[in-house]
Amino acid sequence: MAMDIKQVGPAFAGEVTGIDLRLPLDAKQVVFVEAGMDEFAVLVFRNQPITDAQQLEFSNNFGQIESSEGGNPTSKLHNRRLRVDMADVSNLNEKQEVFERFDRRRLFNLGNRLWHSDSAFRATPAKYSLLSARHVPKNGPNTEYADMRAAYDALEGWMKEEVEDLICEHSLMHSRGALGFTDFSNEELETMKPVLQALVRTHPANRRKSLFLASHAGSILDWPVAEARIFLRDLIEHATQPQFVYAHRWAVNDLVMWDNRQTMHRVRGFRGEEQHRDVRRTTIAGDGPTTRQRA
Predict the structure, then answer these.
(1) What is the domain count for the chain?
(2) Whether the predicted model's global pTM rises above the 0.90 cut
(3) Three-state DSSP state, 78
(4) Could you tell me if residue 205 is inside a domain?
(5) In a domain? residue 201
(6) pLDDT of 103-147, one tens digit each?
(7) CA spacing 20 to 30 A to 42: which of 78, 165, 254, 286?
(8) How far is it, in rounded angstroms, from Cα 275 to Cα 138?
């Protein structure tokens, strides 16, 4: 079958056919996928019953795989369910049992329901994320993606001038603190030190500008905190209007790949959280900081 990408939902999501992720990709296929990512920013691969090893092999075509250490500082190495180069965004503990309601790992992961960009809390934020659905509940949840390029394009001229050179401070402490999750150990706080990120990014391939927003952003350099937070909240409301959003309804063996430099996303809540949800993410590290890090 010839490789093809068909638009699904708004213009920035595409469904890929003609590629079997269980098999090694050749150079032509890698170029095809990267070009698709540059154009669409979200790619959907259906019916891909892959193993962890096959997901890692596919991911390695697009850069260095980021370690998941620090992504959920409440998880320790001894109670990990997956290897360290895969981020576990499931609702399962190391015994393959659904988290209990007050499990700290579950409470921390509730932050994934906030709009965010993966690893925006790291000095070098993520390039791509690749999420494979191994088991999904009958009632969802969907994952929603917002096109930060279209959101930037829709800003009025004066607002584009306002955001152009702004630098934000990102930290997991802010996104989780917004949910009332503040009970961190000193060791956990050490992993969540704030980093600086540019609010406007230019994509290296297509040269389109986009907003770099996330629930991790808690302040803007040289702004009063209250003013910065309401400004960022207004921007997120603007960027997540329905015309900018694609909602993916998961099926078993879906793999969705997205560009964190051009999108923001969130998982939705779902009825029947006693059903287990097994989804595994590999994350491709970015090329470097979005701005020079200052003390």
Answers:
(1) 1
(2) yes
(3) helix
(4) yes
(5) yes
(6) 999 999 999 999 999 999 999 999 999 999 999 988 878 999 999
(7) 165
(8) 8
